[in-house]
Amino acid sequence: MLREQLQKLFPDHKEEVLAEESSSNIWLQDEPLLCKYEKRNGKPVTLIEGYTGADADFKILAKELKTHLGVGGSVKEEKIIIQGDYRDKIMVFLKGKGFKVKRVGG
């Protein structure tokens, strides 16, 4: 609605789509990240593994994921563990960041 009003006020303006800059500058890799679903102690968890960059970048990525989803999780043994089954949302988020993602199982 606001865009339409602005377009009427400034008909000659061309809207530029700016590439969203990553605030963390996480290293992107060639190999896809693996997104898995498991049950641990009867509770669903989503695992992201296969990242070959720095540990600090992996922790930043985990924090961004947890904040985006509003859930808990941790980083252990080069895996991001997210509480709950959020494979679809995680895959969309990671693809938006520029990662290649592969869904494993189910």
TrEMBL record:
InterPro entries assigned: DENR/SUI1_TIF, SUI1, SUI1_arc_bac, SUI1_dom_sf
> Keyword annotations for this protein?
Initiation factor, Protein biosynthesis, Translation regulation
Residue span, SUI1 domain:
38-98
Q: Pfam family of this protein, just one?
A: SUI1
GO annotation (BP), single: translation reinitiation
What family is this protein classified in?
Belongs to the SUI1 family.
Q: Which protein is depicted?
A: Translation initiation factor SUI1-related protein
- Taxonomically, what lineage is the organism? Bacteria, Pseudomonadati, Bacteroidota, Flavobacteriia, Flavobacteriales
